[in-house]
Amino acid sequence: MDLGFHGAGFQIPVAIDSSAAAIRTHKKNFPRTKGTVADLAKLKPAGVLAKVEEEIAAGERIGVIGGPPCQGFSRANTRSKSSDPRNQLPALYLDIVRELQRYYVVEFIVFENVLGIRDKKHMDTYCEIVAGLQILGFDVSEQELCSLDFGVPQNRRRVVLFGMRQAQGYDEVKPRKRKGLSSVREAIGEIGAEPAFFRHGLDPAEFPVHPNHWTMKPKSPRFGDPKLIGTDGRSFKRLEWDKASPTVAFGHREIYVHPDGKRRLSIYESMLLQGFPEDFVLEGNLSEQVEQVSNAVPPPLARSVARAVRLALGC
């Protein structure tokens, strides 16, 4: 999301994430941003405000972008419950915005999450978010966006809530669709070089093509016969060259299988399927990179969202 907003001309002064690897990635790609490793539930709204005050003078106009962890709302999590403690984070999001409003003019918010947040068992939480934003003084609109409509070769659908400060005459936020890559082949078909296979002591500087072009060693006998790997299922889902990828959302051992059926995708290939630019680099070990590429908002979609916010703001 930050990459998309940065590309649309917004400054990103402060970023907070509970993952140390994600913040290392952020600092590498956004060296001017104050990145902080923190659990928001422990940092609390006052702690967030303190971090923001270090970088932004009181009274400035700001926006708040992000998305609470989605696993508690995900339909892929068949055991998800409305009582999942992670589902309390959206309420914390509102509390943070409320705290920031004491010292800043919060012109807009952007809140992204999985479609499951609107399912019946989570509907109360979702309605509380919308109502809470309205109480905080925002005109709220909702969009269900698919990455494939924004030049990303992936069928990834997400809910995005927009909150624009009321009574300012702002237009409705309407992200414009754009043409771009639409298949796995267009995204990764010309890489050529095989990735490095994980082992301890690997140096990313020696990886072929890109520092994130690595993956797990293909140990399963299934990789010896691609016919044994189908295009559905979860642990062994093989991508098809001339179709869009399904949602890039991996478990540690659930990285999609490359279309040739002989190995799993590399992190770099997954990044390209998410629409990351070739010069973007993820930090961390293999598991941490899997988590980051899975949690990311596809940058081209985020850029269209950011441009729509700018247009609505009239700037």
Largest sheet: 4 strands, mixed
DSSP helical segment count: 9
Unreliable stretches: 70-75
Number of strands: 10
How much of the sequence lies in strands comes to: 15-25%
Could you spell the SSE succession in H and E letters?
HEHEHEHEHEEEHEEEHHH
Kindly report how far apart the N and C termini lie: 19 Å
Helix content: 25-40%
> Any idea how many domains?
2
CATH class of the largest domain: Alpha Beta
Strand order of the largest sheet: 3-4-7-5
Structural class: alpha/beta
- CATH names the topology of the largest domain as Rossmann fold
Principal-axis shape equals globular
CATH 2nd-level architecture of the largest domain: 3-Layer(aba) Sandwich
* Fourth-level CATH superfamily of the largest domain: Vaccinia Virus protein VP39
Mean pLDDT, to the nearest integer, reads 90
Give the key terms.
315 residues, alpha/beta, Rossmann fold, 2 domains, 30% helix, globular
Structure described in brief:
The chain is α/β, with parallel strands linked by helices.
Task: Please describe what this structure looks like.
The chain has two domains: 2-178 and 298-313, Vaccinia Virus protein VP39 (Rossmann fold), CATH 3.40.50.150; 182-274, no CATH class. It contains nine helices and ten strands. It has helices spanning 2-7, 20-29, 40-53, 89-101, 123-135, 184-188, 267-273, 286-295, 299-313; strands spanning 14-17, 34-37, 61-66, 105-114, 138-146, 154-155, 157-165, 196-197, 214-215, 245-246. Strand 3, helix 4 (89-101) and strand 4 form a beta-alpha-beta unit. The longest helix is centred in the C-terminal third of the chain and has 15 residues, at 299-313. It is globular and about 60 Å long.
